[in-house]
Amino acid sequence: EAPKALLDVNGIEVIYNHVILVLRGVSLVVPEGKIVALLGANGAGKTTTLRAISNLLKSERGDVTKGNIHYKGERIDSLTPADLVRRGVIQVMEGRHCFGHLSIEENLLTGAYTRTDSKGEIAASLDMVYQYFPRLKQRRASQAGYTSGGEQQMAAIGRALMADPKMILLDEPSMGLAPQIVEEIFEIVRDLNTREGVSFLLAEQNTNIALRYADYGYILESGRVMMDGRADELANNEDVKEFYLGIE
Ligand code: ATP
Q1: Which of 28, 99, 170, 246 has the fewest CB atoms within 10 Å, i.e. the most exposed one?
Q2: Ligand 1 centre from 193 Cα, in Å?
Q3: Which of 17, 46, 54, 57 gets mutated to test ligand 1 (max ligand atoms within 8 A of its CB)?
Q4: pLDDT tens figures, 158-176
């Protein structure tokens, strides 16, 4: 039996500044409980796709001009980013965006601002974040601006967890990080997926690592899905190997 679609993106077109056509009808599905990778070169449209889903294009002068987006069967394209956060759809932006002058713990707590449940439940989420990211616990009192790139990426994911997510849209988590740290972060993503049931849509230029952790992948080229398939099938596909995995 096919898994239920948590997120269903259907034929979206995105235009920047009324003239620059960047997505030319992108469709993809994230089934409940899965990790889906959105792959492709720099400029292929990965970030634009994530921003279209979380309705963050307006500030970039971008508009979704065709298609529709459903989450749990409900149409979400006209909801605000805050509405989406309340429904459990959380974006972790590329480049991490920590508040540099706040401590790691204060950064994490900013993730809980839309929650209306008790202080106790928010404290429990903080404990959960520290369980998954022991490094953040050690660095809880450090000013985020003085922590490493890896710690800031962890804090960005931790902040998303503080919002009690069902689905995380994770933009380029490997960017600028050493391979060992990238591996550590992907291991945690996998644990969050299997133990907490968080679904992920993961934009990555690092095809190799993304396909090792994802269940399914979509490859974007110039704003179109050129290929999609199970992660293990894509990893063994000759074209994917040649163009995206490097020649071995
Ligand atoms: P990256 O690895 O840089 O995140 P990407 O695959 O996520 O790449 P996008 O950032 O979505 O690609 O960009 C897709 C295309 O849209 C690029 O050609 C980019 O130059 C263009 N673009 C992005 N933002 C804007 C904008 N605000 N105005 C005009 N064009 C834009």
Answers
A1: 246
A2: 28
A3: 46
A4: 999 999 999 999 999 999 9
Q: What atom in ligand 1 is closest to the CA of residue 49?
A: 11
C-beta of 42 in contact with ligand 1 (< 6 A)? yes
**pTM (2 decimals)?**
0.94
Amino acid at site 211: L
- Cα 98 vs. chain centroid, distance in angstroms? 16
Count of other CB atoms within 10 angstroms of residue 117:
11
Number of Cβ within 10 Å of residue 1's Cβ equals 3
Look at ligand 1, atom 30, and give the residue with the nearest C-alpha: 16
Whether the CB of 47 sits within 6 Å of ligand 1: yes
pLDDT digits (tens, 9 = 90+) for 213-230: 999 999 999 999 999 999
Give the Å distance between the CA of 165 and the centre of ligand 1. 26
Question: How many whole angstroms separate alpha carbon 10 and alpha carbon 27?
Answer: 4
Residue 176 tokens, joined: 């600028």
Rounded to the nearest angstrom, the gap between the alpha carbon of residue 177 and the centroid of all alpha carbons in its chain is 16
* Rounded-to-integer distance, Cα 247 and Cα 99, Å: 40
Beta strands in 76-118 (DSSP E): 89-92
The 8-class DSSP code of residue 144 comes to G
Inter-residue contact 39 to 208 (CB < 8 Å): no
Q: Which ipTM value was assigned to this complex?
A: 0.91
